Amino acid sequence: MSQGTPNDFQAKVEEFRRLYVKPEIGIVSADPMDGNKLSVSVSDWSAMGKIPQPSSEYRGITLVWGFHVPDGVALAPGFQVQGPAPAARRNHSDECTCSNCMKANQHLAKAKTLSQANKNAQARRQLTTAINMLEKLRPLGENMAGAYVSMCFLAFGASARTKAKRRQNMLDAAAWYEKAIKVWEQNGNTESLGGNLTNLGSLYFRMGDLETSLARNLRGLELEKAKSKETLDDESFNSFNHVAGCYLALGRLDEAEATVRDCFALLGDNKPSSGYLWNTLAEITKARAEQYRKRAEELVPPNSCSIG
Ligand SMILES: [Zn+2]
Asked: Are 141 and 171 members of one domain?
């Protein structure tokens, strides 16, 4: 693996900052997850057009454009300068026909055939090889995300004789799914993010990890709300409903109700899909009634007339 020295990287970073990132466009900050990465938050989306596409003059540094949804100026769409990168990481894509990329694709294809034939252990081995190759060749490609999702399904469907193993399978599945989500967050494929965040949120919900479920569902809803009004659909109702359901399960009833009301205000309360939200509102109201009853029982002295 050939890597530039930290000083090379720092010099390129300074050059990048000087040339392209004017204070009125955005801010440059170190990526807290990876000391070799820079995050650039862009506050003026229209100014992004003035930043040229990364070019080969950045030898040894791969520039990765990871746009978030341009939701006005508030969402701070950004991109990353990533480096120092292994030389092998440059120029590969899902369409690349170099021998390494073709080999990775062959392992992917074999894994697919094997898992269709329910030969899951063999499928897993092929997929593991493919993933190891793709992580070096094209870590932000759609094939990379797809491979992680396939691994997620294999983990989820793995045999489990005990409850503990079943739970471990779900944890494994969620961990693979997180990796796919991370690819889409970084390569800017918001199309894939939405529905998959909801799926992942449901997986955490089933595992009883309500906080994480809420976090993933909130991110899904954020993306959904960033869409233009014309493209909101049944999926959008679904996003609201999952968030409301998480708040409800966590006993955060005010936020649950506010989410339902938000949905009604944005999408209407009289559509076929609104019914699911009405049902959630009924559940919220029921939970509230129980809270009130509990409070009543706390306040009435034990020797008074029963309030049952
Ligand atoms: Zn290649």
From this structure: yes
Residue with tokens 């992680």: 148
From the CA of 172, how far away is ligand 1's center (Å)?
29
The alpha carbon of 59 and the centre of ligand 1 are apart by a number of angstroms equal to 17
Choosing from 68, 90, 112, the residue where a domain stops is 90
Q: What is the pLDDT along the chain (308 residues), one digit of tens a residue?
A: 334 455 555 565 566 556 555 544 555 554 445 444 555 554 444 544 444 433 323 323 333 333 332 332 222 233 444 333 334 345 788 988 899 999 999 999 999 999 999 999 999 999 999 999 999 999 999 999 999 999 999 999 999 999 999 999 999 999 999 999 999 999 889 889 988 999 999 999 999 999 999 999 999 999 998 887 777 888 899 999 999 999 999 999 999 999 999 999 999 999 999 999 999 999 999 999 999 999 998 998 777 776 65
Could you identify the residue written with the tokens 């009883």? 208
Secondary structure E strands in 15-77: 26-30, 37-42, 62-64
CA of 91 to the centre of ligand 1 (A): 7
137: CA distance to ligand 1 center in Å?
Answer: 7
Dist. CA 130 → ligand 1 center (Å): 13
Q: State the distance from the centre of ligand 1 to the C-alpha of 51, rounded, in angstroms.
A: 27
- What's the CA-to-centroid distance between 244 and ligand 1, angstroms? 44
205 located within any domain: no
Angle between helices 210-226 and 234-249 (to 10 degrees): 150
Does residue 141 sit in helix, strand or coil?
coil
Q: One-letter amino acid identity for 51?
A: I
Parent domain of 72: 6-90
